[in-house]
Specification:
Elements: H1 2-26, H2 75-82, H3 88-106, H4 110-123, H5 130-143, H6 147-160, H7 167-181, H8 184-197, H9 202-216
């Protein structure tokens, strides 16, 4: 009897579950959510594309002037482009070369010192001390009373290294050389250039004093 009651309960539960499933199946299905974009109907198909053939232009394209004269760059420019910046080893070598020349001049070996400085400028023309090497060479010639050679060295400083720190001293020494070689007129022109081009500097003060002194010197005095 107990087993029969259990079986009956199981069958009733199964019937209840089937009835519930039938009710769910008969319930109306919810409509699909409206799409954000309407589907294309067959009548909405794209129209056929029309092929248009373009006739070639009768006019020829304008000719471009390709006859450009080719000019080789100046040799000074190409040499500058080929010159690589010195590395640390090169800079050390240059400093040693300059120091040797300076030491020679200090110990009375003026001729050897000038040769060393001239070689330094040839080997390292873009070195920051190249203008100083020329200036020291000029001073060595000036001490030896070789005024023409001294003048050449001071003029090289001014023309080749106008932004160098030895320019003003070179101009003053150049005026001294010109005073002894060509007279006060040539020297005055250099002093006046210093005063007008570098006002407020110590060199301008010295040049102004020399201008004043030369104006007070009687004509014909040495």
């Amino acid at each position: 009897m107990r087993a029969l009651r259990t079986e009956n309960a199981r069958l009733e539960a199964r019937l209840d579950r089937l009835e519930a499933e039938k009710k769910v199946a008969r319930a109306p299905q919810p409509s699909a959510a409206p799409s954000s974009s309407r589907a294309l109907a067959p009548t909405d198909a794209l129209p056929p594309l029309t092929v248009v053939k373009l006739k070639p232009r009768k006019e020829a394209a304008p000719k471009l002037d390709t006859e450009v004269e080719i000019a080789e760059p100046a040799e000074t420019i190409t040499q500058e482009l080929k010159t690589a910046p010195p590395d640390d080893a090169d800079l050390s070598m240059a400093e040693a070369q300059f120091s040797r020349g300076l030491e020679m001049m200090k110990t009375g070996q003026s001729e050897a010192g000038v040769a060393q400085m001239q070689q330094f400028v040839t080997d390292w023309p873009r070195h920051p001390r190249a203008d100083n090497a020329l200036y020291l060479s000029g001073m060595a010639f000036l001490s030896a009373k070789e005024l023409e050679h001294a003048t050449q060295q001071f003029e090289r400083v001014i023309s080749q290294y106008p932004a160098g720190d030895a320019v003003l001293d070179s101009m003053l020494r150049l005026a001294d050389c010109r005073l002894k070689l060509k007279g006060p007129r040539e020297a005055r022109a250099t002093w006046e250039q210093i005063v007008s081009s570098f006002p407020g500097t110590a060199a301008a003060t010295q040049a102004q004093a020399r201008l004043l002194s030369s104006s007070q010197t009687p004509v014909g005095s040495p």
